[in-house]
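pls design
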């Protein structure tokens, strides 16, 4: 077994790399930053080499995601930002007050870059890193500024060339397929969490554990839409690849919804009260779904024929397990029998969606490399002004949350820069740099990152100091520098403490190439990091803090309102089948915001008297969303589409549900006085545009029960306040 485990770990690492190429990202950074260093060592031009390498490293922090066009735009933006802020830092560094004033603007702007998601975080690092470092080493003559600008352009241009060359040989639709493959992987992890304990070998997963996986799945779907925004309705069938991938993504998201529906059905089943035979059949079915989702993820990513054969065998096994579950007859338990039949029905629909995904991927055909898919005109069109305007609108999307965070970061970084400039701390630029790295939108995240940053920095500084005493002829420092470029990116999302250790080691070794780094300098660096982390924590606590004890009620109100709108769309709109998944995603996003806010609320200092009420309200709201999803899934899977409206009896139940919703809506002013309460009163003659099936009526009954519980909880919460 000891010999097998390392192989399994390597295999898992390679598979993770295929889905999220962090090692490839680190290799790109190593190539972009190490080549200038090697050139500097060979030609004894270490000062210009250091500036070229520093610029290359700054731009390489931008993660290349999305299509070739999106990558091209973000790299072009990186060149402009690198040059502009390097010049700004270089010309203002000689003046304390000018540096302080510019730091305020730079920190505010770089914080806003987080509005652009993953790409924005990398651009943010590029902006403040180059400004702070160039400000620490200012120039006072035009020729010196021209030389600095040329070196920055060389570093930026070299990075862009490396990045575009790598991107040019990738399959054109691989980023899209990778985003869909990640959805499949999250579905596999969700099913694995649902399956836990059904084999009788351990406890079942809690509701919270399942919801966390459900939330991760939803975030991955949202991430896919961030880079590939077009839905099925918006894509032309003439674009065969884009259309088929949009259909595959839609089917994949629906499979996720079906798995969540199966989880909801099994939630109330007590495994101790059912026969072992049925328990093991359900366990085998869920395990088979997990394995099929795993295999589908790899097939979507690779499109290899051998993976298709393996997937076909997984689906065949699923068919056999569903048939075995059908043959099992539940005795003397009507509720359990209904649950079994519903699980079978949802499983059969899921298998049809599996087959649909496979058929569409085969119909899509080969995925050609970028250099064969992009004509000259199409490549130039990627830089069309409309794309830049859209990104600028996202960047300057001011709201209470982003503005408060940007102001907090700007003030904290400016104070840090002023302290280091006023007291003329040698290499004190680590003070504002640490503030910008550590400071997060939420206090809990800032405190956690500060601890990791300090520990990693101290360890990295110690290791760097030891390496500086190694004999130069061994070239160990140069080898460690090249390796550090790779591993600091690799660990960035896996373990920030290790990443901080490697980043510190990298910078100690990089700056030592130009001029020797002393032990005193390493100590100053460590103290500056501790001071910067302390300032960040202090700013998060005292400067425009975002306390979730205040914001949690607002998030909860928003989630309740979105569920209400989703309900109205389902039963009181003329065609609820059109684009219903958009309402689903919007509602689930607000539920997720409320859940995240509750998690942060529980980590904040102070008493949590109302935590149980908040938690129950959030779970009630989540269950209502799931039942509305089930109603739409059932409607979408009806064999015969009829235009018959709901019967009188069905409409009476819908109106009762509306009444319960309206009662709850009247109470939300107790938690958010700024909330715009809007209630809807149905016409007595109105009937919902579709007849409800037995399962849809059952979902409606569940929604009514959840709403009644929520009303009591809202009243208790209002009384407690």
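designed seq:
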């Amino acid at each position: 077994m000891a010999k097998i485990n390392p192989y399994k770990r390597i295999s898992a690492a390679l598979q993770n790399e295929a889905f999220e190429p962090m090692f490839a990202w680190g290799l790109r950074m190593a190539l972009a930053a190490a080549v200038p260093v090697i050139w500097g060592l060979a030609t004894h031009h270490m000062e210009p080499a250091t500036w070229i390498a520093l610029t290359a490293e700054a731009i390489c922090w931008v993660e290349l995601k999305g299509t070739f066009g999106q990558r091209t735009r973000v790299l072009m933006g990186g060149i402009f930002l690198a040059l502009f802020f390097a010049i700004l830092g270089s010309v203002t560094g000689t003046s304390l007050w000018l540096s302080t004033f510019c730091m305020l603007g730079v920190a505010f702007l770089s914080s806003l870059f987080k509005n652009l998601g993953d790409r924005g975080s990398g651009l943010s690092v590029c902006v403040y890193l180059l400004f702070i470092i160039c400000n620490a080493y200012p120039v006072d003559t035009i020729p010196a500024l021209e030389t600095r600008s040329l070196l920055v352009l060389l570093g930026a241009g070299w990075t862009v060339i490396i990045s575009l060359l790598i991107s040019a040989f990738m399959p054109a639709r691989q980023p899209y397929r990778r985003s869909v493959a990640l959805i499949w992987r999250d579905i596999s992890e969700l099913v694995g969490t649902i399956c836990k304990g059904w084999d009788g070998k351990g406890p079942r997963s809690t509701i919270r554990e399942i919801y966390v996986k459900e939330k991760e799945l939803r975030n991955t779907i949202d991430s896919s839409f961030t880079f590939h925004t077009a839905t099925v309705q918006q894509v032309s069938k003439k674009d065969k690849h884009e259309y088929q991938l949009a259909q595959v993504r839609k089917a994949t998201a629906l499979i996720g919804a079906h798995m969540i529906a199966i989880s909801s059905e099994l939630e109330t089943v007590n495994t101790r009260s059912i026969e072992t035979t049925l328990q093991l059949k359900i366990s085998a079915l869920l395990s088979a779904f997990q394995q099929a989702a795993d295999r589908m993820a790899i097939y979507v990513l690779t499109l290899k024929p051998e993976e298709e054969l393996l997937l076909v065998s997984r689906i065949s096994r699923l068919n056999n397990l569903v048939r075995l579950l059908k043959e099992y007859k539940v005795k003397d338990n009507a509720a359990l029998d209904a649950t079994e039949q519903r699980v079978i029905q949802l499983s059969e629909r899921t298998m049809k969606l599996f087959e649909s995904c496979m058929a569409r991927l085969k119909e899509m055909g080969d995925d050609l490399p970028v250099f064969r898919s992009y004509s000259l005109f199409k490549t130039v069109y990627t830089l069309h002004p409309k794309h830049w305007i859209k990104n600028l609108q996202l960047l300057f999307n001011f709201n209470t949350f982003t503005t408060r965070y940007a102001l907090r970061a700007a003030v904290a970084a400016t104070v840090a820069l002023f302290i280091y400039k006023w007291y003329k701390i040698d290499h004190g630029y680590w003070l504002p740099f640490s503030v910008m790295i550590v400071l997060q939108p939420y206090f809990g995240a800032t405190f956690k990152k500060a601890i990791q940053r300090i520990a990693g920095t101290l360890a990295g500084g110690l290791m760097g100091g030891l390496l500086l005493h190694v004999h130069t002829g061994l070239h160990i420092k140069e080898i460690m520098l090249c390796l550090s470029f790779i591993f600091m990116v690799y660990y960035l999302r896996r373990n920030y403490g290790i990443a901080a250790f490697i980043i510190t080691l990298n910078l100690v070794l990089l700056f030592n190439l130009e001029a020797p780094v002393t032990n005193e300098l390493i100590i100053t660096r460590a103290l500056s990091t501790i001071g910067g982390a302390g300032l960040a924590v202090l700013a998060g606590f005292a400067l425009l803090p975002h306390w979730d004890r205040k914001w949690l009620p607002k998030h909860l109100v928003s989630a309740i309102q979105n569920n209400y709108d989703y309900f109205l769309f389902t039963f009181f709109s003329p065609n609820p089948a059109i684009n219903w998944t958009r309402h689903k995603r919007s509602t689930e996003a607000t539920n997720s915001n409320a859940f995240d806010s509750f998690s942060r609320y529980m980590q904040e200092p102070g008493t949590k008297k109302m935590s149980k009420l908040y938690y129950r309200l959030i779970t009630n709201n989540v269950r209502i969303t799931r039942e509305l999803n089930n109603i739409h899934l059932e409607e979408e899977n009806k064999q015969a589409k009829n235009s018959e409206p709901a019967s009188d009896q069905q409409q009476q139940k819908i109106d009762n549900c509306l009444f319960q919703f309206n009662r709850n809506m009247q109470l939300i002013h107790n938690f958010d006085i700024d909330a715009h309460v809007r209630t809807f009163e149905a016409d007595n003659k109105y009937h919902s545009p579709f007849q409800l099936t037995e399962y849809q009526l059952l979902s409606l009954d569940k929604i009514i029960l959840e709403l009644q519980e929520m009303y009591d909880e809202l009243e208790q919460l209002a009384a407690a306040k």
